[in-house]
Structure prediction request, 311 residues.
Amino acid sequence: MTNFWSKLNKPIIALAPMAGITDSSFRIVCKQFGADVLYTEMVSAAGLTFEGAKTLRYLKHKKKERPVVLQLFGSNPKQFAVAAKKVEKAGFSGIDINFGCPAKKVVQNQSGCTLMDNLDNAYNIIKATCDATSLPVSIKLRRSKGKTTASMLIEKVKDLPIKAIMIHGRSFEQAFAGDPEWDEIIKVRKIYKGILLANGGIYSPEDAKKVLAITGADGIGLAQGVWGSPWLFKQVKDYLKKDKYTNLNWKQIKKVILKHAKLSVKDKDNLIELRKHLLWYVKGHKQAKELKKELIHITTLKDIKSILKKY
Ligand SMILES: Cc1cc2nc3c(=O)[nH]c(=O)nc-3n(C[C@H](O)[C@H](O)[C@H](O)COP(=O)(O)O)c2cc1C
Prediction:
């Protein structure tokens, strides 16, 4: 299987994985605004191994999303091997391994960021995955957890054929808020020659430019910054190329909302998960309060259309 990572133009602007957010419909919207790589929500390696009906649904994606990377979380190397084969068969472009999630239910199962405390198991998981698939394998981790830093983990696993690394510049203890620190990404840049992506707190084109300059990374991962503004991908690219970018007006935003909603209707049996996106999309509108009050109750595409018509 080809390593798509090596074919991408730099800087790579990726949609970082977000549970409950980066589903197929949102991924497609982001791709249309220029996202170079799309990460899925995290998917349980155990769930794929035992073919849980809910978990299997995460394998659904569209060809036009490619390159699209499915992210696995778990703690058992054997399950990663089984899951990796299923992900490859489903047609994904790559597999990412989650070493950064601080959520209680993930950490309690010795998965996610807890793996930064257990470097031997981290190694075994990456090796089992690489051995089981010909897809490019990438990893995503945090700046640090307790005394373990990103560079310590990378030192441990650097002989494995990892094709890309995304580092979230916040520690486990910081969770999702506060300022990221880039020192560990700079350190990893020196010991790892593959594709390196910086992530954390990049909410504007100016942030993107600054982080790329500070870290020397090959690209960035956007996460909370694209909530309600998937066009940030285009703005970042415009700014890096031409030093300027434009904002969308309300008419253009309404078009994006409808596109996203239509994709969601095709993809899912209800629009409950879309509601939070709708509230994010209308954040800057002068009647945001009224809009939100109505949008929070939508159940059909027709509901959305009739609300948007009024504003
Ligand atoms: C709601 C939410 C869900 C997330 N889910 C995942 C996930 O499934 N896998 C993962 O590696 N990181 C996940 N993250 C972390 C993001 O990918 C990213 O590393 C983090 O939000 C920092 O970037 P930001 O400051 O640009 O948001 C999640 C973050 C949020 C806010």
Q: What stands out?
A: Residues 174 and 180 are 9 Å apart (CA to CA). Residues 16-21, 41-42, 71, 98, 100-101, 140, 168, 176, 199-202, 222-225 surround flavin mononucleotide (CB under 6 Å).
